[in-house]
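Let's do one together. I've listed all components of the complex below, 660 residues spread over two lines.
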Amino acid sequence: MTNKKAVLAARPEGMVKQSDFNISDNEVEEIKEGEILVAIKYLSLDPALRGWMNEGTTYIKGVAIGAVMRCFAVGEVVKSNNDSYKIGDCVSGLLGAQSYAVSDGKGLTKCDLTKGPLTWHLGVLGMPGMTAYFGLLEKGNPQPGETVFVSGAAGIVGSTVGQIAKIKGCKVIGTAGSAAKCKYLVEDCGFDAAINYKEEDVSEALSKHAPDGVHVFYDNVGGPLLDTALLHLGRGARVVICGAISQYNKKPFYGPSNYMKIVTARGYINGIIVFDYISEYPRAIDDISSWLKEGKMKTKEHIVKGIESFPEAITMLFTGKNFGKLLLEV
Amino acid sequence: MTNKKAVLAARPEGMVKQSDFNISDNEVEEIKEGEILVAIKYLSLDPALRGWMNEGTTYIKGVAIGAVMRCFAVGEVVKSNNDSYKIGDCVSGLLGAQSYAVSDGKGLTKCDLTKGPLTWHLGVLGMPGMTAYFGLLEKGNPQPGETVFVSGAAGIVGSTVGQIAKIKGCKVIGTAGSAAKCKYLVEDCGFDAAINYKEEDVSEALSKHAPDGVHVFYDNVGGPLLDTALLHLGRGARVVICGAISQYNKKPFYGPSNYMKIVTARGYINGIIVFDYISEYPRAIDDISSWLKEGKMKTKEHIVKGIESFPEAITMLFTGKNFGKLLLEV
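Okay, and this is what the predicted structure of the assembly comes out as:
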């Protein structure tokens, strides 16, 4: 049995390049006592991967040069020396960019396929969905009738945030980088307005769509868009920093010069680290699964094929070429 | 009776200049029904004045060209057609940079001289003291044993913040721009450490003095110092934005590129607008007055003389030439 894998070859300076990865093969190892072998079905391509390619971050170590690239994945247990897992179980976790993973089972989650198909466990029912759910509800505290503004709204986190905010009775505005994505947000996801940041003046559009100001700003993007949003904060606004995808490949990292607007808005800026909520994932999965089944929420996937596509796929995240949760089918 | 006044002559671009003001005289007006005449004793020179010289800000209108410069002042009622005020009352409020002010009494506060001398009512018992008290206690929520870091610590706000934090059982570190100011902070104000930001590497000094991180950062300064402080936040840190004196004369205004550190610190950034606490000033004045009388707190004043010194005095705030609360004796 052969394991095909994407290995980190170089630490990128600036934009991630396909040459930062090598594709290689190795013989699948024999599993030891307590271990399982997982045949990986899908890899998840998330913006967080860019940070993990660096030497180190504040909350998780960087991937070593020559090591399999860290990423979330789902797969099926095909061998087991661990009583907690039996052959045929579907699991998700940081299994890495490869076709087979040996694991001691720690940090893995069993995927309950009654909640949704396997791929959803990497998206709307996985880390991105949990980030949306807990970031919005626990850190943004949206109240019915308030205006929620989401950047990077056509991404899996952004579209989930916006749809949960709608379910909670908020007015929802989002930004995206194409007319098709904006149409999707309004027509499929039920957003009240979508702003194409590449074509429209975001500040003007916010003045129009959020005349009383933004009460919750959920930021996936950072950069000048964050500065613009700060100008439109309403009284008592909560800013939830989730990511800064516009900046992950840039140096210097853009600092928001309008940060003092949080003072006059009498609001606060905080952020979401999803791992803090692991023990509460089950209720979020139950809620989101129900909303999806009831048709109150939609999710969209963009699937590329083969481990050899991994280096190209990761660059798509930062150019906005994907439309829907980006997955790689092994 | 002649009123001498400092009038706004021009809106500064960048650093405030002495030529942005004219000194002129006018005859003191007769007071109408309901009005009082105040003989101003002291003017307060505060960083907020720089913002008021602009066209407008988010929370208060800019001063008109040709108008008396807005500033806090204290004085004595010398004529009264208002039953709420009698001759001899000492009052404080936005009386302006002049020697006599006509007022209808609205927005003025009577100074209780049993709480402290008249000048203190512009400093430690006035707006700066209130800003320190409510910003630290209501927005910073310091707990005993936590580490509080204050920028611009030798200023009236910073030194009051640090001393209140000490009274509340915190470890206190501050920055200032001279050896004499640092000595004052440690020897007179009881700070655990003072960092001369012009001579020392602030990040190295914070690593040494706050090895477990900063739990409350009270920022009066902004700029690169804010970015440095963000790197040293402890778990659950609160950042209280009070001001950004390093940036008020600059364009572009410096944005903190390390803002995402608030996310990994699981903290939040908020700020203080002191006017929100007007109804609660009495308890703050009681507390601070008691601490001063009991010798638990000290305050320092830097007094210049004569309205004609106003244009020069305002520039001192931004070059750090004053040492102690800057006041102008009329």
